[in-house]
Description:
By secondary structure, the chain is of the alpha+beta class.
Amino acid sequence: xxxxxxxxxxxxxxxxxxxxxxxxxxxxxxxxxxxxxxxxxxxxxxxxxxxxxxxxxxxxxxxxxxxxxxxxxxxxxxxxxxxxxxxxxxxxxxxxxxxxxxxxxxxxxxxxxxxxxxxxxxxxxxxxxxxxxxxxxxxxxxxxxxxxxxxxxxxxxxxxxxxxxxxxxxxxxxxxxxxxxxxxxxxxxxxxxxxxxxxxxxxxxxxxxxxxxxxxxxxxxxxxxxxxxxxxxxxxxxxxxxxxxxxxxxxxxxxxxxxxxxxxxxxxxxxxxxxxxxxxxxxxxxxxxxxxxxxxxxxxxxxxxxxxxxxxxxxxxxxxxxxxxxxxxxxxxxxxxxxxxxxxxxxxxxxxxxxxxxx
Length: 359
């Protein structure tokens, strides 16, 4: 029987929680947070593998937070399912980030170290790849290592007897333009699109010779040695069909022909078709030369020689090729943007090239 004098305790507030319930809910929230962070970390590192390498760092940080919160959630036994998901996805994201880090480190090491093999001398028989039984072939009309064009087209030359590139001897009134390219290099395509006609008119007017030196260093980030094969194809054209060399050079930078830096390029058959289109018909010697990859060893050896030696004829005796496009006029390097036509025109004028007559 209830004593009417005894105070009746107030009923609990319908929205009130006990301290233990509140703590359980807090730990449950940690479990959900662990799951969200873990899944976000996993997505971040996966996306970074294809688009943004530095995103793996952010993914790793999210993964660490997910693992820590997941462990807390598992220990607290509150909402264990999301805690386990967060812990597992965070651990997997950490593993993926670690693998991406190792791959990135190996790639970076390969990009900053010298290409395989030491070539302190010029391309020659000593540069023959291991396992090859025949001496390396040196293409005709590339005595300087590059392909030299003047108002008459390709400058004809025999294979150098010394086994070393022979410096170009320009006429007294002519200027010398050297252009180092890689046919996979997107900036080279920009330079060619922007300034190719200017160079062509300089050649045709007799004001300058233009030497194109194809390099192959982007092979290290591509799956199929396209840079070497395209450079070798240019050597084939220079030797066997030199009258088509300038057109082929320009066509290899056409967006429909040039591959992206890290994707597969044209196979040899498609490369022959591209050369055939630009040349208005490639002859049999050019076709068989490209198909057999005859000048690939030469192209690779030339690439290493270029990076191991100063630029011939440079005003600065220590001037070295550091990337592509690398343009030197009368021994002075062009430092402007590849896509800035006015900057290149101004640079030519500074070297006393009569740009006005070719514009």
